[in-house]
Amino acid sequence: MKDLFYAIQDLFVNVLFAPYDALRALELENWWSANFGSWIFIIIGMIAFIYWMGQLKKFNANNEEDKSISSHSYL
């Protein structure tokens, strides 16, 4: 059983967390390279937000949503 836990530890420490160790090494060298991934995610999020707001505006302009005020039948 002890070997199983050591194998899980070895998998996570030496294989799955290796990209994070590489990012940690970049952080010490250059701030811009360390935060490159964050900037990419921020840009993708902004593009998605702008696209989503455009779609909402398009559907609102077409009056496709039923905005009638009515209660549920069980009320």
Q: What is the alpha-carbon Rg in Å? A: 25 Å
Largest sheet: none
Uncertain ranges: none
**What is the straight-line distance between the termini?**
59 Å
How much helicity do the residues have? over 70%
The secondary structure category is mainly alpha
The helix count comes to: 4
**Rounded mean pLDDT score:** 84
Order of helices and strands: HHHH
User: How many β-strand stretches?
Assistant: 0
Overall morphology = elongated
Number of domains: 1
Brief synopsis:
This protein has helices at residues 2-16, 18-29, 31-34, 36-61. The protein is mainly α and 75 residues long.
Question: Would you give an account of this structure?
Answer:
The protein is an all-alpha fold. The chain has one domain. 76% of the residues lie in helices and 0% in strands. The protein has 4 helices and no strands. It has helices spanning 2-16, 18-29, 31-34, 36-61. The longest helix is centred in the middle third of the chain and has 26 residues, at 36-61.
Supply database-style keywords.
mainly alpha, single chain, elongated, 4 helices, 75 residues
Any chance you could write out the topology, listing elements then pairs?
Layout: H1 2-16, H2 18-29, H3 31-34, H4 36-61
